[in-house]
Write a structure and sequence with these properties.
With 266 residues, the chain is an alpha+beta fold. It has one domain: 4-Layer Sandwich (Phosphatase 2c, domain 1), CATH 3.60.40.10. It contains 6 helices and 11 strands.
């Protein structure tokens, strides 16, 4: 788990070059932090990042999320992964983490029932591949517009998709934390894979529901519209979630595609 401060880095091996910052925060109403983040912008050949939101009693959720952000990047360190195989590589990485969490939950009494939602991103030459389970999300900011990239795996989202609940009424439904997919709840997982064609100047956010339960997409868009540097935006997002109530742990990863190519070597 990263310390509670921005860690800006760069990944000059790809174009557009992608810079990343990440942080978690306990929020205002929880005593422990079950969100975990990991960024690997200098990883070869593909920079990647992972965010997980743990579930379970005692410290079990914290253990599950920590395992996820350790095991998924470890599985993506294979230098032989070709871009065409990244979908499969991400599925395999999440399955590896799932098997480990499920096994630990079954063999360790204090970890019984632990699980974690997860969203992972791998940066290829000119696009990003996302894999997710649950309601931790990915967003993209481009030319003044915030787009939700991932689709929640939750009972609430099912009700919205079926037309039973309006998006604007979702917060008061009471279904927000009932996820339908997560790491550690069964022997197998079925992560959803999504692609985002990366353009210079794009900003990407991975976040836990501690952000999206507190802030609407419109409110998030207004924060992105300020065009603050990534570390400043990161602080603003966490502060806004806490100002709105901070009812849950908060996890955020921000990425930005550089606006100009790296200088050619002489």
């Amino acid at each position: 788990m990263l310390p509670p401060s921005p860690i800006p880095r760069s990944a000059p091996a790809v174009w557009p070059a992608v810079h990343m910052v990440a942080r978690t925060d306990t929020g205002l109403q929880r005593s422990n932090n079950e969100d975990a983040v990991a960024i690997h912008p200098d990883a070869r050949p593909w920079p990647h990042a992972v965010l997980a939101d743990g579930m379970g009693g005692y410290n079990a959720g914290e253990i599950a999320s920590a395992m996820a952000v350790k095991l998924v990047p470890a599985a993506l360190q294979d230098l032989g992964i070709e871009p065409a195989r990244m979908d499969t590589a991400l599925r395999d990485a999440l399955q590896l983490a799932n098997s480990a969490i499920f096994s630990a939950a079954g063999s360790t009494p204090s970890c019984q029932g632990m699980a974690a939602t997860v969203v992972a991103a791998a940066v290829l030459h000119e696009h990003i591949v996302f894999a997710h389970l649950g309601d931790s999300r990915a967003y993209g900011w481009r030319q003044g517009r915030l787009t939700r990239i991932t689709h929640d795996h939750s009972l609430l989202q099912r009700e919205i998709d079926a037309g039973h609940i309006r998006e604007q009424d979702a917060r008061g439904s009471g279904l927000g934390h009932l996820v339908t997919r997560a790491l550690g709840v069964g022997h197998e997982v079925d992560p959803e894979i999504t692609h985002w064609p990366l353009q210079a100047g794009d900003r990407i956010m991975l976040c836990s529901d501690g952000v999206t339960d507190m802030l609407s997409d419109d409110e998030l868009g207004r924060l992105f519209a300020g065009q603050a540097p990534l570390p400043v935006l990161l602080t603003a997002l966490i502060a806004a979630a806490n100002a709105a109530g901070g009812r849950d742990n908060i996890g955020v990863i921000l990425m930005e595609a550089a606006t100009s190519p790296p200088a050619a070597r002489p």
